[in-house]
Amino acid sequence: MNIFRLAGDMTHLISVLVLLLKIYATKSCSGISLKTQELYAMVFLARYLDLFSDFISLYNTVMKLVFIGSSLAIVWCMRYHRVVRRSYDRELDTFRYWILVGACFTLALVLHEKFSFQEVFWAFSIYLEAVAILPQLVLLQRSGNVDNLTGQYVFFLGAYRAFYILNWIYRYLTEPRFTRWISCVSGLVQTALYADFFYYYFISWKNNAKLQLPA
Amino acid sequence: QEIKTQKDEL
Prior knowledge:
Distance between the termini of chain A: 41 Å
Radius of gyration of chain B: 8 Å
Number of strands of chain B: 0
Number of strands of chain A: 2
Radius of gyration of chain A: 17 Å
Structural class of chain B: little secondary structure
Number of helices of chain B: 0
Helix content of chain B: under 10%
Oligomer: heterodimer
Helix content of chain A: 55-70%
Distance between the termini of chain B: 25 Å
Order of helices and strands of chain A: HHHHHHEHHHE
Largest interface: A-B, 18 and 8 residues
Strand content of chain A: under 5%
Shape of chain A: globular
Number of helices of chain A: 9
Structural class of chain A: mainly alpha
Strand content of chain B: under 5%
Shape of chain B: rod-shaped
């Protein structure tokens, strides 16, 4: 564990807490893409198949349970909670994400570290996470003004993978034979997808204005 | 046996 990875995990945890706070405090999920939340639930379920087979550390196990539990809870809340579900922007959140799921799974069948059930699903989860934010970014552009908590949620979600890139550079420099090409390339693509969001987020922060994404 | 690259990251 290094400071970059810890910062990345904490930033990821903060993004989940901000989202839970928004939904719990405002009893509303307006501006949140259910499709991105469902993609993230798939990412965690596919990635943490080794949850019960490989014990790495208490930290690792606890964090996996937190990410799986929170993503499923948010999906449940947005689908079935009688108050929250009313504020879901159903007509704006129309990204056909099964194309993404199919493409990532096909890619994982071709490109993986080892051709085993667990490794293929792990690679699938890495590729899927890289594009999971797309429905959310599309929804933000369509829904115009973005409330603060939603903006912060997306910001922290994007920042966490940037910390992971620093972590991979650090590990590449300090650990012999450390290579995680699948994670690195995917992580770069994932962070790049946030580039324009980060730009408009910074502008809104500098001008102390509401976050506005151009339609 | 090839060591399974341990997935120690989240």
